[in-house]
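Budget justification note: compute hours in this period were largely spent on complex prediction jobs such as the one shown. Inputs:
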Amino acid sequence: MKAEILTIGDEVLRGEIVDSNKALIASRLLQLDVECHYQASVRDDPADMRDAFERGISRSDLLLVSGGLGPTRDDRTTETLAEALGRPLEFDEGSFEAMRAFFARVGREMNETNRKQALFPSGAEILANPVGTAPGFLLEERGTIVVCMPGVPRELSLMMDEQVLPRVEARLEKGEGVSRVRARMLRTFGIGESSLEGELADIAQDGEAELAFRTSFPDNFLRVVARGASISEADTRIDAVAAKIRARIGDLVYGEGEETLEAVVGGLLGAAGRTVAVAESCTGGTIAQKLTDNPGSSVYFLGGMVAYSNSAKQALLGVSEETLVRHGAVSEPVVSAMASGVRARFGADIGIATTGISGPGGGSETKPVGLVYIGISWGAGIASSRILANSGEVDAGIRVSPGESGGAGGEGGSAAGHFIFPLDRARHRTLTAQVALDWIRRLMTDTELVGPSLMRRGGGSAPAGLPSSGTKTGSS
Amino acid sequence: MKAEILTIGDEVLRGEIVDSNKALIASRLLQLDVECHYQASVRDDPADMRDAFERGISRSDLLLVSGGLGPTRDDRTTETLAEALGRPLEFDEGSFEAMRAFFARVGREMNETNRKQALFPSGAEILANPVGTAPGFLLEERGTIVVCMPGVPRELSLMMDEQVLPRVEARLEKGEGVSRVRARMLRTFGIGESSLEGELADIAQDGEAELAFRTSFPDNFLRVVARGASISEADTRIDAVAAKIRARIGDLVYGEGEETLEAVVGGLLGAAGRTVAVAESCTGGTIAQKLTDNPGSSVYFLGGMVAYSNSAKQALLGVSEETLVRHGAVSEPVVSAMASGVRARFGADIGIATTGISGPGGGSETKPVGLVYIGISWGAGIASSRILANSGEVDAGIRVSPGESGGAGGEGGSAAGHFIFPLDRARHRTLTAQVALDWIRRLMTDTELVGPSLMRRGGGSAPAGLPSSGTKTGSS
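Corresponding output:
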């Protein structure tokens, strides 16, 4: 099945908005193993629209259209398509009633202009829109399925999932000897794209599933696609391959699908009843912001300090003046003192801290732009026997220490490490925050704290987004 | 001049990346008043690419292509275009040398595969790429200008500005009676799109310039386009219209072009030698993160606290237990205490604070989800005679108070207000942070602190992104 996506709207053509709808639709289609061959966008211009409809119907099996279903004069998708196909418009009472109910629910007045949103080309199947006013519709023309959907991403997304994909899947199943497809997205952090590819080369080659790699800074995503004569066969296959991958690269996989690292960390902390506090210098609030992006984060997030100045590090986090003077603000002793200081101030189970030089200014010969220290401190009872196994050793720039009473993890402990990330300011902050969040995840799952050496293992390539000939962050 | 944009790459067609390059190119073209009529994307497939080239050349005057200029086997733009146009490929020694110098500069090894990036279709004009390996090129075919550029946004952006736009402008100027165009983008915050349109209706109608409105949550952007027989005529016109707009809506315009609100606030603080400290509850670090996004922010940003829990508000910010118990954490007395507390703790000139219910949980009948309090506190010498004019009065939910010694601004003062933003969690946090930053801007420019009532002035529509029949945040 050859798919084509068409989005309609002056605001897209003028570049006033970045049109994310095409990517939204294309990635959903991939779940059914349907590939998108063409993407096009045209203005709210009937002649251009007719032309695009005609071309799509003649060259594709599935034409997915988004935009132009609103109530205003500029919204002309339905009428233009009906005219192009020589189909009269028909009024649908049920859709009009659903629209009226929608307006009543959100406490707004329905306008007479909304009436046109209940008109559909003859022969179209109507696709309900429970979260907006504009219903979509589907029709078949010369063997091509044409689907028209609203342009509001939230409405489009729901309509794709609930209405369009099941119908496309049903068509696919009518085909002879069609295989069923299941896809799963594994989210990894800490390993470069080409290293990931190298580590999993044999799994990719054994034919059980297809692996596709993609950088989404600072993560790398791994898409696993398996086919089978039945869905359960495809499912069994994908489970087996995913298990093999996890056995191989284990703790580098932090989540699946839409799970962000901060959501995973929040889930782990919440489930274990543990709390965290954050002391940030160079990340300037990024870690706190990410952790509190999660609804209900007040259960485990006690608070954060953004301590940019030395005096703030002293007064608020208890870093001693001597330590600051002797080692400088960007140093291991300071980040360690920040992590334990913030943990003590908030009475949290875990304290995490960052201090570094995100640039572009502020570097020196011994402390270049890009240098960053990350520290973590944890209290009694947080499992860490594995983490403390290399206690006292400096491994890959990370020094792990047992707690005050020297127990094997039962009394808590701390770790600190340094990295040089040769990135611009924004990406330096993002990557630093991600390593810090990943350390909390590793602490909670009792896996080794890792840094750049592991990030570079395998093919010797850099982590996602670091300059490396193997890293592709965009097409060139 | 009819322009068309074509982007090339499997990753775009699969929806693995949201292709922002088309919007980047289109918005740059608008600076020259050139409208984009078509946008298309195809895979790294020679047949599809040939087809797209052919169509673009036959229907458009300017075809801007991005992607597929890299060194790998998948990058086929140059060879495919050369073949489609029947032009041989020619090796350019100068480009190859520039590439070698680029690799030496970034300390990387040049690969033999990079050689193909120095091949260009016969008759092409080469466009240098000072920030990457792939040069672009321009050629003319059957009256259509075809420009090929790299897909890496940073490289594309620079090539558009420095190489492509001047050449397009030069072609435009060859035309008979062509007018010169100047465009300027004014960034506004605090007024809804339809209110903005209403306020400026007469200016839009007097024909001196065209005004276009666009919502970019939580801001509204206003694009002013003026034409003239000469550039200086267009410039004079645009200056006059911009002055008229500023006279009308004055302090609602916070910046121009690419200036973010946090950059404007940072600039004001830096220029005045003033410092700020932030106490955040519901925004969870967003304000601190934005302020520290600016390079060199350590000059004016002393630090921040993310005080999610009551105990943190007490211990770190000095909010009294009595105040918390009596009024609740989401209240005007608490936000005021947070703002003055954080200012005192960090010894800053200005303290800013937020506390609210971003949702989805945590609301009650008297304190619904969406309720938020914002507080600001400032020290002696920060001009605010205008701000203190309504001292003691509660205007539009904002209460302004003079400092301890009761002077007319000379001794500092404070203000606090509450808003109900019926938005999802992420947008609630974003809008709250923007109001807080805007208050700092207003304090530094001695303009009235405003809230929702002003945001709703004019046509009675809601600010950008708030539900309102007049607000359009996407096409439907």
